[in-house]
Amino acid sequence: MKVNEKMISEIASIMKLEFSKEETTELTNELNETLSMLNTMQEVDTTDIEGTFYGTVNQQSYFRKDEPHQDKEEVKSLLANAIDSEGNQIKVPAILEDGEGGA
Amino acid sequence: MNLHTKSIEELHELLVNKELTVVELVESIFDFIEKTEPTVGAFISTNKEAALAEAKLVDERGVDADNLLDGIPVAVKDNIVTKEGKTTAASKMLEDFTSVYDATVVEKVKKAGMIIVGKANLDEFAMGGTTETSKLQQTVNPWNSKKVPGGSSGGSAAAVAAGMVPASLGTDTGGSIRQPAAYTNLVGLKPTYGTISRYGVIAFASSLDQVGPLTRTVKDNATLLNAVSGKDDKDNTSADLTIDFTEKIGQKIQGLKIGVPKEFFDENLVEVHVLQTVHQAVEQLKKLGAEVIEVSLPHLKYGVPAYYAIATAEASSNLQRFDGIRYGYSAENAKSLEDLYVKTRSEGFGSEVKRRIVLGGISLSVEHYEELYGKATKVRTIIRNEFEVALKEVDVLVGPSTTTVAPNIENKEGQEPVEAYTDDVLTVGVNLAGIPSLNIPVGFHENMPVGMQIIGDYFEEATLYQVGYAFEQATDYHEQYPTLEGGTQE
């Protein structure tokens, strides 16, 4: 398993990261070394083995009710961390570029 | 009076006997931090004023003679959020971030009467094993300032080892408590997954992350674990426990079965002096009456690839929340929302964090999921089963916590990422399995500490402490302290 610079650029874009050409080359080389180490897992026979996805002892996912609560002081402090705000809302840069429709 | 090498238990006695007030203790600690911190660099931030105010309150109401932790200073790793001061995760991304709430563990140490002295340095977002990926400062090993303190909880370890605080909280995703504890002669626990609430702990890999205590003695460690563990409605993966983790402390280990996994004692993997020191520790356990049995964990070495495929996958998802909008760093001059995301993340994260996000993205990609993340979850099952089988045969497993003593700061910087990753082979298996492991000091090589892990079955921390305490009572390694350069240690 090997990756090339094109794939690294694609993954970076999905991860909302950008790298210069030199960084991409270096990252690709480093990741290929790491991937060859990760590839040693293929030596393990995992036929009929179920995956472990949770940290908990009984391998369950837990759910809770998603109940909203509001605390005015909390809202104020939350907004203080935000990039910009107006009233009780977070203000963000324009979603549309140059007036063109997005996705 | 030298307060800086005292255990929680010893400090408690002084406080209760009124030989010392909490204010005097906290003042002495800050005087000591002022002298030692320029060398050690353990803290990203400290808050003397708030700590002294808390100390005064405890003095006024009187120290609770039944609560060992009342009025005891503690350091908190800076990826655990606190309302007081900043929480940075040692990243440019959160350099100016102030949390709206306290993490559950922070609420719990406060409720126990402990006094938070400051926030300890770490590898950026806990990704690293040397604390060198911290974007804010360098921490050195108090035993030798040319050496790394380990990581990612390097600041938490260095603060206790240097004598600045008697205890600290760290986090351990793949060895980040046990490895720095081993490098700095401390007792450090990675609890069973679910023992301590992760609410308010900045997520790295959610199925692996656990908070844990670093202390000078085994009993202190168990006492602090009692205070911070338990079910939390804000973390659904936290376990409902009614265990007193100190209950087996002082019980003999006569007849206890101790497994020695041969893969932990591989000369091709572990440096020979570390092996010799741990072998001697095993002999000591035999002398104390334990029965030592060789066992095998044949897939242990596949823990490293499985860990990096899983931890980076989870990290790539967890770190998507850093968008430059709601909190944290925001890039200047972004042309659009998309541009803001990309610029913020590219400028805000350091290179190791970005490397792991991209690796996690590959691990989860349609093209590579089966051979990376998918395969790793199955290897994880095999490793977990092997630990479970071994721990049916024996009460605990022991082995070295690290492959070498703490390396030089320069050496690690020039190391290829993949070499640094393979150093984690002795610690990551425990995180994949979800079981607990305790590092204890077992000796020195060239004046640098060597640590041994005691690994147990799920929620068997009390047995780990039992073995650790028996060893501690028979030896004096835990009573050795570094002489900091500059002669600041009294």
TrEMBL record, chain A:
GO terms for molecular function: transferase activity. The keyword Nucleotide-binding does not apply. It catalyses: L-aspartyl-tRNA(Asn) + L-glutamine + ATP + H2O = L-asparaginyl-tRNA(Asn) + L-glutamate + ADP + phosphate + 2 H(+); L-glutamyl-tRNA(Gln) + L-glutamine + ATP + H2O = L-glutaminyl-tRNA(Gln) + L-glutamate + ADP + phosphate + H(+). It comes from the Bacteria. Transmembrane segments: none annotated. It holds the Pfam family GatC. The keyword rRNA processing does not apply. InterPro entries: Asp/Glu-ADT_sf_sub_c, GatC. GO terms for biological process: regulation of translational fidelity. Keywords: Transferase. Signal peptide: none annotated. Heterotrimer of A, B and C subunits. Belongs to the GatC family. Allows the formation of correctly charged Asn-tRNA(Asn) or Gln-tRNA(Gln) through the transamidation of misacylated Asp-tRNA(Asn) or Glu-tRNA(Gln) in organisms which lack either or both of asparaginyl-tRNA or glutaminyl-tRNA synthetases. The reaction takes place in the presence of glutamine and ATP through an activated phospho-Asp-tRNA(Asn) or phospho-Glu-tRNA(Gln). This is Aspartyl/glutamyl-tRNA(Asn/Gln) amidotransferase subunit C.
TrEMBL record, chain B:
Allows the formation of correctly charged Gln-tRNA(Gln) through the transamidation of misacylated Glu-tRNA(Gln) in organisms which lack glutaminyl-tRNA synthetase. The reaction takes place in the presence of glutamine and ATP through an activated gamma-phospho-Glu-tRNA(Gln). SUPFAM superfamilies: Amidase signature (AS) enzymes. Pfam families: Amidase. Keywords: ATP-binding, Ligase, Nucleotide-binding, Protein biosynthesis, Transferase. This is Glutamyl-tRNA(Gln) amidotransferase subunit A. GO terms for cellular component: glutamyl-tRNA(Gln) amidotransferase complex. It catalyses: L-glutamyl-tRNA(Gln) + L-glutamine + ATP + H2O = L-glutaminyl-tRNA(Gln) + L-glutamate + ADP + phosphate + H(+). NCBIfam families: gatA. The keyword Lyase does not apply. Its EC number is 6.3.5.7. HAMAP family: GatA (MF_00120). Residues 24-464 form the Amidase domain. Gene3D superfamilies: Amidase signature (AS) domain. GO terms for biological process: translation. The keyword RNA-binding does not apply. The active site is at K77, S152, S176. It is an enzyme of class 6 (ligase).
